Amino acid sequence: MRSSSSPPRSPAPSTTASPTASPTPSSRTRHRLAGPVPALLLAAGVLIGAAGCSGGGADQSSGSSGGAGAVAGSGAVRADAQDAASGADTGADTGSGTAAGSGTDGVETGRAVVSTATLAVRVRDLPAAVLDVRSRAQGAGGLVTSSTTGGGAGDETAHLTLRVPAPAFEDVLDAVAGLGQQTSRTTASNDVSAEVADVDSRVASAQAVLETFRARLPRATTVPDILAIEGEIARRQADLEALQARQRVLADQVALSTIDVDLVRGAPLAAVRAEAQPGFRGGLEAGWHALGEVGRVLSVVVGAVLPFALPLALVGVPLRVLVRRRRRRPGGGVDTDPAAGGAASAG
């Protein structure tokens, strides 16, 4: 009965995967994803390297542009310095034109006038007149800048230079002329309003330009720029000082007028002419003066002849005695002089 039984069944296949089993869908997906990853990483590395190169180039180019900017900035500073210098010259020229224009409108702004005078006066007492002139100048708020005296006895002279405030110019001039007899008087006035305005404008322009250069000096970044600005400051400072000196001279000349005074010792001419009128007293004085002149002339003549008369007398007297002795006769010792012989016969 066993033989009629059904044949033995084959064993069921095992569900355990062998090493050679075919891959599952998940493993195939991982293999497909793992394949492009190295390529992507390589591409990313190439891109990063390219980005780095481009960044380095950008940095280099920015550095180059920064250097060019520095050079350009240096040139700009020098250009600004030159522009400021030319602007100063233009401003000075413009100021000159403005000053010339303002000089014609002195009625509203006031005139700047330099006044001078020369005065000659005859005085009886020269030292007292000199002291009086000094006193009047100082009393008006002025001063005596120079004083000289000269001449001989009876002909002394003095010269004084006065600087007095412009408002007191005429008063001091009249006061000095009243010290004696005025023999000459000359006055002059010079309108310097245009020159004063021109110098004032130039000073203001020079000061403004100098301040501009001083403000730019701290911003200079290169040695050439610093040297250029410092040189320009020194030159502009010298120009400003020269203009300020001229400004002070003009201000002094306008504020203080100059008077040159010549004093001569002597009586006034009118008194001399009055004393010279004819009359008994005048004739007596003239005769006495003439007698004195004659005596003076005779004394001069005697004084001039005396040095020659003494030697002539010392030589002439002995010579005459010798000649008289030689004229006597040898035998009788009678003088051969006719006058002497006549006298002897008469006796």
UniProtKB/TrEMBL annotation:
Residues 1-32, 82-107 are annotated as: Disordered. The keyword Cytoplasm does not apply. InterPro entries: DUF4349. The chain crosses the membrane at residues 297-319. It comes from the Bacteria. Residues 111-318 form the DUF4349 domain. Residues 1-27, 82-97 have a biased composition (Low complexity). Keywords: Membrane, Transmembrane, Transmembrane helix. This is Uncharacterized protein DUF4349.
